[in-house]
Specification:
Blueprint (H helix, E strand, L loop, with lengths): L2 E4 L1 H8 L6 H10 L3 E5 L5 E4 L10 H12 L11 E9 L9 E8 L5 H16 L8 E7 L6 E2 L5 E8 L17 H7 L1 H5 L10 E5 L4 E4 L3 E2 L12 E7 L2 H16 L4 E8 L4 E4 L5 E6 H8 L5 H10 L3 E6 L5 E7 L9 H12 L19 H15 L3 E3 L4 E2 L1 H4 L30 E2 L4 H10 L7 E12 L7 E12 L5 H14 L4 E2 L8 E11 L2 E9 L1 H6 L6 E7 L5
Parallel strand pairs: 4-8, 4-13, 18-21
Antiparallel strand pairs: 1-3, 2-3, 5-12, 5-13, 6-12, 7-8, 8-9, 9-10, 10-11, 13-14, 15-17, 16-17, 19-20, 21-22, 22-26, 23-24, 24-25, 25-26
Length: 570
């Protein structure tokens, strides 16, 4: 999970809770869903955060949530931005691949070293999450005093978002003393090399100009002329991307963080060739939540006044109403910086946290039956115990993965006629490039664990019984789901025979018939690979992992592996 570094002293200062000790602060943070992972060398808290709460990517956002939790803040706060004095003019030459821009002016911000460090961390964390490593949205923050805007027809100073040829103009990028063209930046600058793939195929590159010249090459790097320092007091924030909603929400999060430092927000006019918008967009949205559903989900009885109180202590606002059926419902208003509230259940989760999940009294459900293990669960448990008995360490990995990890790094193509190459069930709007689909088999996850454990001693024998899925139109849901048994053996003498011996022992204990006819699979070495056939049905694959797959995962020892469908053991 992602982590964010928070200085506990700065957090205490921003919350006005200087009396709280570190342990008490950790408990309060845990109540928000932020888990303490350790300390940095500088003594900051390393906090693991839920990737949906992107407003907590900075110390300012965490402090805001704590103030609500302490009752020092209530309801929704929406900054009142000043009217626009600057305009961003979008030219027809802007690349079609990156057509959207947004922005805001920040006045009178006090940037000491800690505040500047927090701003940079927020920028990079938003890039890594919502911005999908700058592909979907990229943030540029500039010292406003270093910009000179051309006067527009209304008198506002104007900057231009344009497209330019790779060698059309020159500027001095950050961390450089020499003028470079955008093409030079992609080839010779370290940051340019890192993000070159984002724009290298464009016919024209995105660029932002003021009256002096080129000062930003999004999404790659800003110019040195407008670099922000602790002496900066007025900032110009611009964001470009492939989706207007995404960059607008990223802008809201940055604006709220700077507003918490006492800054004043100023609007910016964005003039597209065919329409005009004013940003930032601090519009709120509402969700209708039924009182009965709140009580059912949380398992407690609440008065309407208590629900309204809990909503205000969550940074929301709730108005009591009746629907057409006469049932009690609440119109809950969501603040502009919350990008995670998509469903009434998200609101109920906030209400439960404000109430305190630890304060909920456990009770037996009001049903007349006694629970027991499902047959599928008993099968899974028996198989897991057998694998542990055969010398494997039991694992539990994420069900979500990226296309590169699931296919490319194992030399498999989606739709190939091999085990594990099913068509992926993808996430429409993922927050991270690392989790864009449901895995189609567990082997990629096992190899990722081996890759992260190269510093540990061998042998490493790992196994997982885990969820996998692929698109299947014959299913009612359109997706075939199942449990897979996967295992890897990594040591200097790992071979096909080692893996087959353990597979034979496992299937023998379940009384099923195993055959392993030769087959080909791109993840495994040809001639050292077989299909797993149980009771006459092909249900998996076994073999020695191919050297190019080992090299891709930085593994320097042989690996043998097998994977098959758990249901075959029934």
């Amino acid at each position: 999970m992602p982590t964010v570094d928070i200085d506990p002293d700065e957090l205490r200062e921003l919350t006005g809770s200087e009396e709280k000790g570190d342990e008490e602060l950790k408990d309060d943070l845990f109540g928000l869903g932020l888990e303490f992972e350790g300390r940095t060398e500088e003594g900051a808290f390393e906090l693991e955060f839920a990737p949906d709460r992107l407003d907590r990517l900075s110390v300012e956002g965490v402090a805001r949530s704590l103030r609500y939790q302490y009752g020092d803040a209530r309801g929704i706060h929406v900054p009142s931005p000043n009217s626009a004095e600057w305009t961003i003019e979008v030219d027809d030459s802007v690349p079609d691949e990156r057509p959207y821009v947004t922005g805001a002016v920040i006045r009178d911000v006090d940037l000491d070293d800690e505040a500047l460090e927090s701003l940079i961390q927020l920028q990079e964390k938003l890039h890594a999450t919502m911005g999908r490593k700058r592909a979907k949205g990229a943030i540029g923050i500039h010292d406003l005093t270093m910009l000179k805007g051309t006067a527009a027809t209304e008198g506002n100073p104007t900057i231009q978002y344009v497209g330019l040829e790779p060698d059309e103009d020159r500027f001095v990028p950050l961390d450089s003393d020499a003028e470079m063209t955008p093409a030079d930046v992609l080839e010779d600058h370290q940051t340019g090399q890192t993000y070159a793939d984002l724009v290298s195929e464009y016919e024209r590159y995105p660029a932002i100009y003021d009256d002096i010249g080129l000062f930003s090459f999004p999404p790659v790097i800003n110019g040195r002329r407008t670099e922000v320092s602790t002496d900066s007091r007025d900032l110009f924030v611009e964001m470009t991307g492939t989706d207007q909603w995404t960059i607008d929400k990223m802008l809201n999060i940055v604006c709220y963080a700077l507003s918490a430092r006492g800054a004043t927000i100023e609007e910016v006019n964005v003039e597209y060739p065919d329409h005009e918008v004013v940003r930032p967009d601090f519009a709120t949205k509402t969700k209708t939540v039924a009182h009965d559903r709140i009580e059912t989900i949380l398992g407690i009885g609440l008065d309407p006044e208590e629900v309204i109180d809990l909503a205000e202590r969550s940074g929301l606002e709730a108005d009591r109403e009746e629907n057409d059926a006469g049932d009690l419902v609440y119109e809950v208003t969501i603040p502009p910086y919350r990008v995670d509230v998509l469903h009434p259940l998200d609101v109920i989760d906030d209400l439960g946290r404000a109430y305190g999940f630890n304060d909920l009294d456990p009770r037996y459900p009001d049903v007349g039956t006694v629970g027991g293990r499902h047959e599928r669960s008993r099968l899974e448990r028996a198989a897991r115990e057998q694998l542990v008995g055969l010398g494997f360490e039991d694992l539990l990995n994420f069900h979500m993965i990226s296309e590169a990890e699931n296919y490319d790094r194992l030399d498999v193509l989606p739709g190939d006629d091999v085990y594990g190459a099913g068509e992926p069930a993808t996430i429409k709007e993922p927050y991270s490039e690392d989790f864009t689909m449901l895995r189609t088999w567990v082997m990629p996850s096992l190899l990722m664990v081996l890759e992260r454990n190269t510093h540990r001693a061998y042998p490493q024998n790992l196994a997982e019984i885990g969820f996998a899925a692929n698109v299947d139109e014959s299913e009612n849901t359109g997706v075939a789901e199942g449990r897979r048994v996967g295992a890897v053996l990594a040591h200097h003498e790992a071979g096909y025979e080692d893996a087959k011996a353990r597979l034979q022992a496992l299937t023998r204990n379940f009384g099923v018939d195993l055959k392993t006819p030769p087959t080909d699979h791109p993840t495994f070495i040809s001639g050292r690979t077989a299909a797993v056939v149980i009771d006459g049905e092909e249900v998996g694959v076994i073999g020695e992992v191919h050297p190019k797959v080992l090299v891709e995962h930085d593994l320097e020892v042989p690996v043998s592996a097998f994977e098959f469908d758990l249901e075959a053991l029934r």
